[in-house]
Amino acid sequence: MPKLTIDGRTVEVAAGTNLIEAARAAGIEIPYFCYHPYLTVVGQCRICMVEIQGQPRLAVACATPAAEGMVVKSETSERAREAREAVMEFLLANHPLDCPVCDQAGECLLQDHSMEEQRATFTTHMTETRRTFPGYESRLIGPHVIQNQNRCIHCSRCIRFTQEISETSALTYKSRGNSTFIDTFDGKPFEDPMSGCAADVCPVGALTVRGFRFRKRAWKLRSTPSICPGCSIGCNIFIEHHERVVYRFSPRENPGVNATWLCDYGRFLAESFNEQAYLHPQRRVSGQLARATWGEVLSALSTELKAARSLRVVASANLSNEELYLARELFGRHLKGEIVVPVFPGEPRRMKNGKREWLTSTDAHPNSHGARRLGMATVDGEGLVRFLRGAAGTTVILDPSAHPSLASEEALQALGRGPLVAFARAKHPVADLAGWLLPTPSLASNEGTFVSTTGSVQRFAPAFAPPGTVHRTATGAMSPTCPTIASPWGPPGEARPLWVVLSSLAREMGVATLDLSSPADVFALMARTEESFAGLDWEELGGQREQSSYRERQHVG
Amino acid sequence: MEAVLLRARGVPDSRVIATYLAAGGYEGWKKALAMAPDAVTREVTDSELRGRGGAGFPTGRKWSFVPKDHPGPRYLICNADESEPGTFKDREIIEHDPHQVIEGIAIASYAVGAKTAYIYIRGEFVRWARILEEAIEEARRAGFLGKNVLGSGFDLDVWVHRGAGAYICGEETALLESLEGKRGFPRLKPPFPAVVGAFGKPTVVNNVETLACVPHIMTRGAHWFASIGRPRNTGPKLFSVSGHVNRPGVYELPLGVTFREIIYEHCGGIRGGRKLKAFFPGGTSAPIMTAAEVDVQADFDACGQAGTMLGSGGVIVLDETVDMVEAAANVAHFYAHESCGQCTPCREGADWCKDVLDRMVEGHARAADPETLLRICRFSSSGMTICPLGDAYALPISSMVNKFREEFDRRIGTATPLPQKKLPVLPWAGPRPGFGV
């Protein structure tokens, strides 16, 4: 554990820590472009120059390990300041400075450092014609990534990402010297399963994600910690949203799961979060769905379910542990229903953790491991159809996207035989059969925990209130649910998270133990009563804080 | 002095192994095999041989950095990527005496414990790559290379690897990358190649001329070698002299000879009886020296004290007709073209220098130009870049600006403004600006 002094502050760090991380630990920020904590150190941008006592030359902080008794001067060193200013001048000499029309503006390391490092009085003598790469200003290099080579600062992060993390080596340098540019290897399309991360690691606007380009300015986005619902690996993400519209997912650092990476499949699920096909609770009256209120739903449903001859419940591995637990207790224990969790293997997906080990997904749900941990019966597609074909009675479907077989003809036929209660968000054929159709919001309006492949319980936070609820703005004013313009406050409607409906049903039915007011309370109950969740504390699961500054959110640029 | 490294120049059939053996060739290799590897390194250390590639690092010390207890393979690399402007000495050695190099490689490999050696040769040197391959084959057939060399139990394979045409691949770590089949980007140091080199194994990279000195040290002794030249700057050195002299060429002279002697005695003075203006002592990467500095001794320490470096010993002589701004532009063009593009100051700075100097040459100099050049050079050198290419372009250009400032200032006095490109005026297609539209 070497102890060193940086700008007069003494800090003790683990052996092998470089000076950038050591300085961060001491609360000092050393600027960098090419350094990335999960990629090889190359020391080629030269902005992180620091002065080390006893060394005649300046050293790059990224490639210098902290040593016992080292005295480092970063911001207090005039030489280092001059050198950084010069490097900024070199980098900006050929940079187009098109920040106003650049999609990276607001989350650009070059922009940030030029505001921080360079004095307002600094003027460059660069009067030559700027280097450009004609034809490379807005080039779609793969299905998801757009390149603007003029903005590139040659930090090689994207190249190292494809070499070291996604292992496709899809990006490479071409040409030499000042004409060096980034291109796909062999000119092939950039079809990398993690291509979005190349744009993430790009410190400037040279690589940007096509789906997000020009949709929202980075500084307007709020970031809510969440878990990717794409598969069972459970990558940590931020849901980035503005005024109840989800714009993108970005990876959230977690060395044990996804380091700072996210696969394209998971990343582009963000768009689906804005889908809300069913807005109000509906009840089928003489063959037609008619709008109902939640109050009617709860009282009618509790009576109906209690009176049901037999009860079958199709739960889902997309539900949180809290929702699964409530469903198991309410439908299984109190109403003596039969409950299964369909599990769909889906396409194999993989992710690299901070130690550069591949994690593989076992199935296409974020919480299949949670369902197993809660001791619930899991079934595959065939088992699900067999389950539905069993003795006729009332059926409850908690999530139609639980398994693709639910949309199959056999399943729909079986469901048509008896009363059906369906919770749904996206369009699904079970809605045409349901006697009760109850809208649920996306994960962005829900809160709870998932269990990942590696067995860790991870928490996701609500990004915004469910559609239709009255929303309090930052200034304290109540925002109306606008009937004509959907965008500012999300779709109008009354979707409610499943846990809200289940705990309200429990209250309606007089099951006091399950009448809980938050997922945290449900989790506390689980921690008390479930052996597999014993000893876990909601507050310690992380993912509770909303962050607004992108720097804080993603110090990896 | 007697010819040592170039003793075969002018001898008929000098490249054939029989000729080499008749002149006492491979005796040093036999002698080394009878010694312990450490003793061989000690002998070279005692000779005070310093690397001839440019940096002048003591060769014996470089060999001793290889970890003794490293279990896996280790490599010796002969750097024949001679690409410094004005340097053509290695080519001369290979042309006349390839076995001298191979013997040096064999001895060095034995000293550092390498069983595989590579000769990384400049891609354009097709003829000399062939010469080396033929010589290696001859040596292998004669039992000087291959399995169980001369019954000693030591195995040694030597391979020729041709470069792909980048100046930067003469830098030892870029050379290693290129040898591994990657892009020629210099590596961050530490770790140094002696610890983590080619294919991640300990590696020693030595210049052709350095290795050619080694057989002579073995046969004639460290003491004899150290008696040539002056203390800490020992042995014979090849100077490749080019430019405005009467007899350009490669000259073998003891270290410590003055540049005056090289230029006026050995090369027959300046062409056309003109006056000397300046010279590069060791390729264009070394800061330029003026005619007033011609009495400096041509060795590592004396050049260092004079604020320049001996480099590869490629002396480029410029006479009074040379325009320094044009010469600087010429140098800048080379380095802007050869910068690898990896780190910021060199990639952006070398090209910027080139643009400024080109504009000055075209007659559009600006008052701030010399200061701009000095600023670019200052922040491209002394540790600002990963490899010495930053220094290699920055130090000569800044030395030219500093030592011949009046020529740069004269350009400013006679400059015309850069003609402005007329931008086409596009008709306004939208609504008229203003309120109430």
CATH architectural designation of the domain at 3-93 in chain A? Roll
What is the CATH class name of the largest domain in chain B? Alpha Beta
Overall body shape of chain B: globular
CATH topology of the largest domain in chain B: Rossmann fold
Number of helices of chain A: 14
Main sheet strand line-up of chain A = 15-14-23-22-21-16-17-20
Quaternary state reads heterodimer
Q: What is the C-alpha radius of gyration of chain A, as a whole number of Å?
A: 27 Å
Overview in brief:
With 557 residues, chain A is an alpha+beta fold.
How does this model look, in words?
The complex is a heterodimer of chains A (557) and B (437). Chain A has a domain at 3-93: Roll (Ubiquitin-like (UB roll)), CATH 3.10.20.740. In chain A, the strands form eight sheets. Chain A has an eight-stranded mixed sheet. In chain A, strands 2-1-5-3-4 form a five-stranded mixed sheet, with helices on both faces. In chain A, 23% of the residues lie in helices and 19% in strands. Residues 470-491 and 544-557 of chain A have low confidence and may be disordered. In chain A, strand 3 (49-52) and strand 4 form a beta hairpin. Chain A has 557 residues and is an alpha+beta fold. Chain B has 437 residues and is an alpha/beta fold. Chain B folds into three domains: 17-227, 3-Layer(aba) Sandwich (Rossmann fold), CATH 3.40.50.11540; 239-319, Ubiquitin-like (UB roll); 324-413, Up-down Bundle (de novo design (two linked rop proteins)). Chain B contains 16 helices and eleven strands. Chain B has helices at residues 17-22, 27-33, 37-46, 59-64, 89-96, 98-112, 126-141, 172-179, 208-226, 259-266, 300-305, 324-338, 344-361, 369-378, 389-403, 405-413, and strands at residues 75-80, 116-121, 157-162, 203-207, 229-230, 233-234, 236-243, 249-254, 276-280, 289-290, 314-319. In chain B, the strands form three sheets. Chain B has a five-stranded mixed sheet, sandwiched between helices. A four-stranded parallel sheet of chain B has the order 3-2-1-4, with helices on both faces. The longest helix of chain B has 19 residues, at 208-226. Chain B is globular, with a radius of gyration of 25 Å. The model of chain B has no long low-confidence stretch (mean pLDDT 94). Classes of the chains: A alpha+beta (557), B alpha/beta (437).
